[in-house]
């Protein structure tokens, strides 16, 4: 069990920005700063103490008795919500796919067609990559003819 009073946060890691709808900015040059962060030997002296951000006024509100434990029509009660650990197995590798086709649609812009709608994480090898270089990945559910 964890103690919320000892939680810490570090904003210098490789995930610079992350959004369900707008993607992620990941800076590999920041990886060494968090290497080994999940071990007891890790030096977290540069991490700051986490603070509670109240949900009231910062999160969507309305009525949702299934989530808040209230009666139909009651407002969401943030004090009744709780953090629950994952039930079941963690995600893992189910299948490794190789692109069915790759097209350069304009100079330096490539479309990789996986041949199916999928969920996954790309494994990318850049043979001649340079530190500080930038790669932008965009995902879509289908390819378009133009």
Mean pLDDT rating? 83
Question: Strand sequence of the main sheet, in spatial order?
Answer: 1-4
**What radius of gyration results from the CA coordinates?**
21 Å
Terminal-residue CA separation: 53 Å
Topology order in helix (H) and strand (E) letters = EEEEHEE
Biggest pleated-sheet summary: 2 strands, antiparallel
Estimate the strand proportion. Answer: 15-25%
Tell me the structural class.
Answer: mainly beta
Q: How many helix segments?
A: 1
Helix content: under 10%
Coarse morphology:
extended
Describe this structure in words.
With 146 residues, the chain is an all-beta fold. The protein has a domain at 4-89. The protein is built from one helix and six strands. The chain has one helix at 65-68, and strands spanning 8-9, 15-19, 23-26, 48-49, 101-106, 109-113. The strands form three sheets. It has a two-stranded antiparallel sheet. It has a two-stranded antiparallel ribbon with strand order 2-3. Strand 2 (15-19) and strand 3 (23-26) form a beta hairpin. The radius of gyration is 21 Å and the shape is extended. The chain starts with 7 loop residues before the first strand and ends in a 33-residue tail after the last strand. 0% of the residues are buried. The mean pLDDT is 83.
